[in-house]
Amino acid sequence: MGKLLKVGLFILFCLSSLAGCFDAEDIENFNIPLIAAYDVAENREEGVDVTVLYPNVAQRNREFVEKISGKAIGDTRAGRGTRYPSTLLLGDIQVALYGKDLACQGLGPYIDNYVRDPRIKKSLFMVVVEGRGDQFLERAHKINPYLGFEIPGLFTSKKKNQFYAVTTLHDFFHAVNTAGKNPVVCTMEVLPNGQYRVSGTAIFKKDRMIDVVGMDETIPLILLRGEEGCCGFIPFVVKKDGKVIDKGTVEINSKRKVRVQREGEKFIFYIKLKITGRLVEHYATNRLILEDKNCIKDIEKALAGQIKKEGVKLIHRMQDEWRVDCLDITKYALAKWRKEIKDVVEEETFVKNADIRLEVEVDIPFWGAKN
Amino acid sequence: MDKSRFEITSKQLIFIIVGSEVATGILSLPRVLSAEAGQHAWIAVLTGALVPLICIYLIDTLYRGFDDPDFVRVSHALFGKALGSLLVITFILYIIFFQGIVIRIFAEITKIFLLPRTPLYIILFLILLPVYYAVSKGGRVVGRLNEILFWILLIDLLVLLVLLPLGDYTLLLPLKDLDYKGLLKATRESFYSYAGVEILLILYVMVRKKEEVFKAAIVGQFIVIFFYLVTVVIALLIFGFEAIQQLTWPVLNLLSVRHVAVLERLEIVFLLFWLGVGARPAINLSLASAYSFCRLGRLSLARYYVLTSMGIALAIYLVAIWPRDLIEVFQLANYAGFLFLLTSLGYPLLYHIAKFMRKGVINHGKTA
Fold this sequence. Notes:
The structure holds 2 protein chains of 2 kinds. By secondary structure, chain A is of the alpha/beta class. Chain A has helices at residues 2-17, 24-28, 73-81, 100-105, 108-116, 133-143, 147-156, 158-161, 169-176, 215-225, 294-322, 330-341, 348-353, and strands at 30-31, 35-40, 48-54, 64-70, 87-88, 95-99, 125-129, 167-168, 184-190, 196-205, 208-214, 231-240, 243-263, 266-282, 355-366. Chain A folds into 2 domains: 23-225, no CATH class; 228-371, 2-Layer Sandwich (GMP Synthetase, Chain A, domain 3), CATH 3.30.300. In chain A, the strands form 3 sheets. In chain A, strands 2, 3, 4, 6, 7, 8, 9, 10 and 11 form a 9-stranded mixed sheet that branches. Chain A has a 4-stranded mixed sheet with strand order 12-13-14-15. Chain A has a two-stranded parallel ribbon with strand order 1-5. Chain A starts with a helix and ends in a 5-residue tail after the last strand. Chain B is globular and about 60 Å long. The mean pLDDT of chain B is 91. Chain B has helices at 10-21, 25-37, 41-48, 50-63, 71-113, 120-136, 139-161, 180-189, 191-194, 200-203, 213-243, 250-254, 266-278, 280-296, 301-321, 326-357. Chain B has 16 helices and no strands. Chain B has one domain (3-347): Amino acid/polyamine transporter I (Up-down Bundle), CATH 1.20.1740. In chain B, α1 packs across α14 (280-296) and α5 (71-113) packs antiparallel against α14 (280-296). Chain B is an all-alpha fold. At the A-B interface, α9 and α12 of A face α11 of B. Chain B: The chain crosses the membrane at residues 12-29, 41-63, 83-107, 119-136, 148-171, 191-207, 219-241, 261-283, 304-323, 335-354.
């Protein structure tokens, strides 16, 4: 009987713990930001504007944003405390948006609070906004009532959709603090009608943004960076004697292999992209795949040529304009000669003088149910 | 208290060895080691492990000659009553100091990650209360507790393994270019994490089958090495030796880099389990010191053991509350690491020398 009582009390204790930390009333007293935007302060000489998007909670019928200015991010929390009675809970923040101007200044100081605060998860996504982050949030949330869930969703599901950079706070922090690494961050824009979209990729030299590329260059960039498990749709055009004989779309995923050789002070990087795909559509419907053996081969060849051309263009741009390793290949040289080259990998000449060779192999083994 | 309540099985000894070593040290180990040895930090885990392994060997060979391998009795037999007692008291003081540091670091982690608004002295009190309770129940209960907590520790290790696919192997390379000086320094830094094995000096007598002690202790030690190796390698694969320097508790940061469906925050899951695991060394070593204190003063275990364990817990509390901030705590942890080297190798060696010199004088059957 005594044992039964003890077990009963234990179960009662467990059940009472299952209720969790907050009840319905508690939740109403909290503000739980889902997205925060950071910009160079508009109305003060130095400082930062923080705009926060809160989810739909019981007392409000839609998401809402609030904007506070301060000398630093922590200071805006103090400012918030004098205006709003509710408690701020940072544990569920999903996305940090950074205005372009702030990104150009360097994001190091503006991620410090995130890394320092154990309540904030290091898997939160970082985004650079074309223009200002506050304007993005204010405009976009007006026509998107669930923005706080939709934008994070873009990054958690991106591997199934399209090639664009997905950078978490950890990725950014790791790249900034590791020799030879530089982060790339997804950029987003809001259209005048309030619709938002991924617009390209921000190229960083350590924590400072140095350029932005559009979606056309983002695809080869992500492929060349070798982001594991990415897949997306790529259109192709097959030409013969200058004439278009077929076009369509292939859904691909890619694997990257990098090999590095050294000839004195010169480093030769061999990047090999192995792309496998599924034919989504092709317009030359008169070419039956099972009968015309060259049909798939032509598509593979065309796609390989197309990706290589875009990749080589990007490599040249990286070496001539940016002069930072945004392809994440320096790590392979460091893995071989870390002690000797650790001090020179951050120099512009390292990337500029490197010989980067690209090889693309495309294999389309699946073409669906139609011949 | 019945003396049989201080009997443990050799299987429980395995868990006690693991429980006495794996605690707060593992959470900062990747940072501490890689600060000195860079990408070779994992090698320091192996070189550092030589000390506890030698310690186990020395203790086992020391006690093999004695029919009643009780630490206090052996100390008296080899060094006489005065010097022997002094050595035992010094050992107890070392345990109190070391566990004070361990408990303080544990409380700091709890404050930073779980209870940021709770005063430190309250957290320390809340940690030491169950420690005292477990110790007061005697060796058998502590043995069983270690067994349960071991499996919980295993869950924590599995949680860490979830991160393996995120790792970048180039961060461990190259394997050549080993900086021997750095490796030596890193090995020294690892001592804090290996402290706890010296508990065997006291627990040896409690193990039912003495012939199994060596094997059990070695198995326990290899489990510890495995835990440390896995943790350091995963931390290096995820952060690399450079970025890791920016993080005070890299293992806890490690767990927040990946979003996991349903569980959401892996580090909270890890910490939930860790709350039991983190206080284990204090439980084990407090048991050892309270037991030795009673034996030294020839106090009846039935009447004075509980009171002694309360006194030990109080002393640990005072040491834990003493450092001003985390910087001071880490400095003291560094000293504690040196003290571990002195006690884990120094004590058994000293006892071996005394044993060698007094060969023939001591009747092993009647050591007291």
